[in-house]
Amino acid sequence: MKYVGIETQQRRNNTKSLLLLSLFPLILAGATYLFCLFVSFCVLSNNGYVSDDFESVVFALGREYFLNAIPFVIGAVVLWFVIAYVSNTSMIRSATNARPLERRENPRVYNMVENLCMSQGMAMPKINVVDDPSLNAFASGIDKKSYTVTLTTGITERLDDAELEAVIAHELSHIRNRDVRLMIVSIIFVGIFAILAEIILQVMLSARYSRGSSRDKGGTILVALVALVIVGICYFFTMLMRFAVSRKREFMADAGSAAMTRDPLALASALRKISGDPGLQNTGRDDVAQLFIFHGVKGGTFNRLFATHPPIEERIRVLERF
After folding, report:
1. Catalytic residue (choose from 163, 165, 171, 250)
2. Which residues have C-beta within 8 Å of that of residue 25, sequence separation ≥ 6?
3. d(C-alpha 317, C-alpha 182), whole Å
4. What whole-number distance in Å separates Cα of residue 200 and Cα of residue 205?
5. Which residues of the chain register pLDDT less than 70?
6. Greatest Cα pair distance in the chain
7. Which DSSP state fits 277?
8. Phi and psi of 102, rounded to 5°?
9. What are phi and psi for residue 127, nearest 5 degrees?
10. DSSP characters for 300-319?
11. pLDDT by residue (tens digit) across 70-106?
12. For 29-46, what is each residue's pLDDT tens digit?
């Protein structure tokens, strides 16, 4: 079998991930078009329109609605994307209660990060710490100014030097491979569908308890219900794509750690310890939790479709064969 270097794997993985992410706006546009078709059907039916070319008229009116609506949809998405993209760092820090770590507080950790960065020719990221006795870590940020490696106090105290260095190298690999930026983009797109679903539910509840006629309320609820179904389907597929991107990148970061430290068994040992007490479950944000070095999902094969990380046993097995 032909050998494929880690840099080639990174390029291939980035290409595949970008292709996956390109489907997000296409899905959004498709959902908007389907909804416009349904609205045009309702409008024509309510007005008693009857014709042999009813279907073609529905599509023509639906296209007109779509062309009128899509600029507003794109504008709203771009606005939300910019706000979320810029504020993601503060949001992650707030969700995890992370704080900056200075060299004088923990020179051991600071020196490990610095030495690994120097060995790879990387700019030094910020270092944050979460005051939590459990074992976990993650990388975040969108550019050199915001790239951050965050560690729990538990992981810095309970792992030996080789294991902790391997974990830090794993997170630095996420930054080097631009995983964190890509994952934040995918999180934002998934969040768009989640917010749309919440808005539609509020519309349905408002219509249910409004003072309008039964026919008007029923029509509004029906339109909102169809919109909710469309958004739900889109949300389901975008979640699957987001998780596929995340799982691929965990293997790459593990390989990057092994290449940096030349000690894959150290990361395997660290992962065993981390899986026993990963903690950070009180963030209340599953989208943030997917950034963690370990984020387990209980359940069978179906639940694993929604896992942000590959099974820990599989990651350890790959590292032991590295």
Report:
1. 171
2. 77, 189
3. 26
4. 9
5. 1-10, 12-14, 16-17, 20-21, 203-224, 239-247, 278-287, 289, 295-309
6. 80
7. S
8. -95, 155
9. -120, 125
10. SHHHHTT-SS--HHHHHHHH
11. 898 888 888 887 887 778 788 888 888 899 998 999 9
12. 888 888 888 888 878 877
Query: What is each CA distance from 48 to 44, 62, 85, 138, in whole angstroms?
Result: 6, 17, 46, 58
Of the candidates 115, 155, 119, 116, the one whose C-alpha atom is nearest the C-alpha of residue 134 is 155
Residue 224 · residue 204 · CB < 8 Å: yes
- The strand pair at 148-152 and 137-140 is best described as antiparallel
263: left (phi over 0), alpha (psi -120 to 50) or beta: beta
Tokens standing for residue 179: 């995983």
Length of the chain measured in residues: 322
d(CA 12, CA 2): 15
The per-type count for the chain, helices as H runs and strands as E runs, is 11, 4
Specify the DSSP class assigned to residue 148.
Answer: E
Q: Which of 163, 174, 179 is nearest to 261 (CA)?
A: 163
Q: Kindly provide the b/e burial profile for residues 137-160, where b requires at least 16 CB atoms within 10 angstroms of the residue's own CB.
A: bbbbbbeeebbbbbbbbbbbebbe
Q: Is residue 229 classed as helix, strand or coil in its secondary structure?
A: helix
Active site residue 171: yes
Contacts of 53 (CB under 8 A, 6+ apart): none
